[in-house]
User: Fold these one by one.
Assistant:
Number 1:
Amino acid sequence: MTLREIKELLDAEVLVGHDQLDKEIKTAFGADLMSDVLAFAKAGSLLLTGLTNPQVIRTSDVLDIAAIIMVRGKRPSPETLRLAEELLIPVLTTKYILFETAGKLYAKGIVGCMERVDDERAFT
Amino acid sequence: MAAWKGLTTNVLSHEPAIYENSFPVEGGTYENAGHVSSQIKALLKGMKISKEVVRRAALVTYESEINICSYARSGKIVLQVTPEHVTIEAIDEGQGIVDIELAMQEGYSTATDRIREMGFGAGMGLCNIKNFSDFFRITSEIGKGTHLKMVIRIDKDFDGI
């Protein structure tokens, strides 16, 4: 799915990255704990989160996250948005809750960046 | 007090570094937290090192940087790159760690609410650092500070000795 299709599906607003909507997305990871995102999320995945502080952007930069979807209608601070613009990481916000967001994406073929934490060596 | 993973000797003492740089990290504030990690990641990306090595190096740097911002007065990250490996050292002046074994346990944390608000402080930082490094060493002195050393292999055959 492209980020543009994801935006339509989630009735999301694009806050950063209007020029990156053609990006192709295949996998996703959802969490509010950045240490878990660091441990498990894979490069090129979509990050679903309810956190909005600048560390979400830093974490995404470290992992080469393709784009961030802020769920539950969360809106990041100007500081967070500035950092996302600087590091060229798309940020979208949707009013759907995390569960619904994940379900809608899964139904369209987006899968988790891993199925279980023990189904492969998680730490690679 | 020291805890080692993977080896018991200094792996790097006899090898010439091809790149070395030190980056100061401000303690007690999150204003620039992650800035050094982004810088180091960009540097490594420009060195034709595999994406996986760059990602792991950035990850352990980032968790270390968050630790310095969270717990120390001040600190620095020292990056060293040779054809065989990337070494990252996080050296801080701060309170130190009372019980390293306990601090290494997943889920154990002394984090404040402020740290938790940022999405950290769940007792995973040091575990992540250890798990994403090929070699990891931690030493700490109470009231003085903590020293982490992480080595990530570029050359798969490099055994650290």
Number 2:
Amino acid sequence: MDLSLSTRTVGDRTVVEVGGEIDVYTAPKLREQLVELVNDGNFHLVVDMEGVDFLDSTGLGVLVGGLKRVRAHEGSLRLVCNQERILKIFRITGLTKVFPIHTTVEEAVAATD
Amino acid sequence: MATVELRFSALPEHVRTARLVAAAVARRAGVDEAVLDEVRLAVGEACSRAVGLHQISGVTAPVKVALIEEEKQFSIEVGDEAPHAAPGGDTPGVQDGDADVEEDEMGLAVISGLVDDVEVTTGQNGGLIRMTWPTAPPAAALA
């Protein structure tokens, strides 16, 4: 399965809905999308990973890169994920401490630091 | 004895194929269903790393994956032909590769977090990652 991406605006947040597999082949598309959003002035991102079937370290690298970019503009990058097999990858790499991870888009959109 | 061997050009689009084949062979070999996700991820990480190393070093040789079914265990070997630097040494041509090096290390971090039995060997002529999982023989699975 390939990667699918769609974005929508909810209040001052931009929700990026990701579906399919994020790996060494598809991760560049996600990177481009995040870079474009930040360049267009969207600094508060919510990445909805509920439709993601597979995530590897290349995908993690892209998310960390996105976080760096939004933080440079005092923005935020929140994740939505309930899938144990995806959450496990964040845990073994220690990235659960880096990303706020929410169970629903609504919760992520409403969250403030 | 290797049951299945794969060789693929060092291109990102082929890594998914390697994952699918590895998971299919692992399932047939009797690797626990609950562990197949880990097998898929680990072999993907090893192949992505090999593809990256070949591309950085301009190696045109294919990446090799051996899926080895043995008694009570299943192993996957992912071999690259990229020249590896000695620890702490310089590798010509990768001075600008900081980001790639970080991703490489993250890939290895994921592999070592996922797989209990993993060996990484590197030499002048390339590297090899060998990962092993226990298998349940069909007879025991039925009992």
